[in-house]
Amino acid sequence: MKKFEGILLCSDLDNTLKDSNGDISQENIEAIKYFTQNGGAFTFASGRPPEYFAELSTQFGINTPVIGLNGSAIYDFNIKKYVYSQKLDSIANECFEYVINHYADYVVNACIEHEGTIYEYDKNHRVVNNNRLIAQYEIFKTVEKNEVFFDMSPEMASRFRKEMLSIDAYKGKLDFVRSWPHCVEILPATGNKGGGVKALKDYLGNITKIVCIGDYENDISMLKLADIGYAVSNACDELKDCADRITVSNNESAIAKIIGEL
To answer: pTM for this one?
Structure first.
């Protein structure tokens, strides 16, 4: 049996695996290669679309499907297809309409993501012409979607998320997370990173231990699911509070540090 066989290591990308300059250290790269060559299953769990990771997966020699769109989609590069996709249902349309009616003046842009397709709308299209707003909402209702995110100030994003989480009609149906301070993403309740990690474990079928690492609120669900949940030292306080362990910062090759401890 190889040293890391049965271990699934899921890492957030930005401000976790990547340093503050957006680079991935050579130490992290070599550690990931060592981990996978010795039986470990390494993958990314990110808010980015899974296709973004095609080059990185090749660079690291990763043969594990990638968790994208904050956990609502999993893409297997070996067979070049989505193997898991949690879609928003009709209640998300009601939520979107609520946002337009109550937060339109604060939203900088909105983006709908479905697997490899992105629909993006800027604020001018929303507030200048009501006809465009109606057309936009009609598009929103008809397209399949894994997640929707709204870009607004950090203060409004925090207020909006708290309000959405308090609405009974959305509980158990929608999740509201932030990948960075000035956005809020709407996801299916089971389509967050925790749900994605669980689905990947089931898909792989040979995982005995899950290790997850992240830096922000959208990583909370997967840290709670993990056997060992790590927060980088630069993580937000809310994530640190639910982490089993706090490691070094993203500027100190945190992934290499964790692999060295396993």
So the answer is: 0.90
